[in-house]
Specification:
Layout (H helix, E strand, L loop, with lengths): L1 H15 L8 E14 L12 E17 L2 E9 L14 E11 L2 E8 L7 H5 L8 H4 L7 E9 L6 E8 L12 E10 L4 E12 L3 E14 L2 E14 L2 E17 L2 E11 L1 H5 L17 E8 L1 H14 L6 H15 L7 H13 L3 H12 L4 E3 L8 E2 L2 E4 L4
Length: 399
Amino acid sequence: MKKVSLLLVAVFAAALLIPGSVQAQGKFDGYMINEYYSVLSHNNEDFEGQHGFWLRRIYLTYNADITDGIKTRLRFEMNSPGDFKTSSSLNPYVKDAYFSFKLGGQGMKVGIQGPPTFESIEEIWGYRVLEKIPLDLLKLRSSRDFGISMKGNLDSAKKVTYIIMYGNGSSNKAETNQGKVFYGFLSFQLTDGLYAEVYGDYESQPDDKNYYVYQGFASYSGDWGRLGLQFANKHYSHNDTSLDYTVLSVFTVIKAGEKTDIIARYDRNFGDGFKESFKGSGISYVPFANNVESNFIIGAISFQVVQEVLNVTTHKMERPLTDADAIAFFDTILAPLWRVYPSAELYRRAIEVKVRYRFSFYDSLIIAAAREGGCTRLLSEDLQSGQTIGRLTVVDPFA
């Protein structure tokens, strides 16, 4: 590891010593996710009846452009414990800390970063504020690792994307052993709305412990919304012990109106790993039972529907609800379904688009919303037709 460490130090030093003007234009931003929870029923009866407030996540991020081709990010995160037992102060820790470089048409990152496990699934699902995607939620693979990664396209149309990464396998914590993880990712934009990817990784640990993770994911997006299907497996082997953790997940996000999403997800978690060696009680905010196969179901409406429904039922209907009826309707129908809350993340992404592509703020907000919604085409007569922003392509419908 000494040679690798020296190489990474050399990369950092070379990046900072590249001739040219150093812009060092940085900015701070952040947001928090605050929730009110109530445990109506649980396999652990001690949790039933608990309710209160917690902070799922608090982010404080610093992004800076060191030169035209070199960027850096430092992000801190804090969380409430979420286990219904621990009472402690919130302590910040480093979530992201990396440099990113442009090398020809390819991109490279060095530092604490997200592995390719969640590269596109997270974006297409689009509701991390509601819940993590399965491999992250079940702690089968961490959302962060310390390592070096390369990302690029394998075709001129930029419809086939690869990512390779070499990391510690210790999340964003200190490295304490010789085990490492190799990641590989390949995605295909098959048509305007149809997307598919394959992923695999191999982790070796001391004492001949080995882990393999592989997954396939496909999604279809349109004006109506999006649908995703994921199959993943984690295999653990050590001497004569062999365990498998298998996950099948399907979700849909249906656009019921201009500002209304109906969200549904079903995860089936099965395999001898879940039955024999699964610490479900350690999952924050939604603790599972230990050593069981499980079904996990999410149903929600986005926050805008609450505003629109209350506005229509109390003002625009021919016979509006009384204040008392509106409160009863909210308490019994809307509040139990209200699981997604507004955050500053969309505006942060819009600002990032504005800085990078020099669009107006409102155009950037439209682009950020389209990307978060998993769209692959944006119809606009104002923006440049054919321009690509990530997986999003601008199309002039009148051209």
